[in-house]
Design a protein that fits this description.
Layout (H helix, E strand, L loop, with lengths): L13 H16 L6 H4 L4 H31 L1
Length: 75
């Protein structure tokens, strides 16, 4: 009886992380004179995506609730 357990793990920095590291390197070496807000802006990508999904879900929930109330009032 043999129990073969294979665990694969991969962690990567991803495109936004690489882009952030590139921008930081360019900023520190003086090749770009951007504000730190713009240098670190690739880190916002994931946050903005999740925020957009949450806002969309909230808007859809509000619309569904309003439509349910309208339907109950018409009965």
């Amino acid at each position: 009886m043999s129990n073969n357990v294979v665990v694969k793990s991969s962690a990567s920095i991803g495109f936004p992380g690489l882009l952030t590291l590139l921008f930081i390197g360019l900023k520190l070496t003086g090749y770009i004179a951007w504000s730190w807000w713009w240098v670190l802006s690739p880190l916002w990508i994931g946050f903005c995506f999740i925020l957009a999904i949450v806002v969309f879900a909230l808007i859809m929930a509000i619309i569904a609730k309003c439509l349910d109330q309208i339907g109950e009032n018409n009965e």
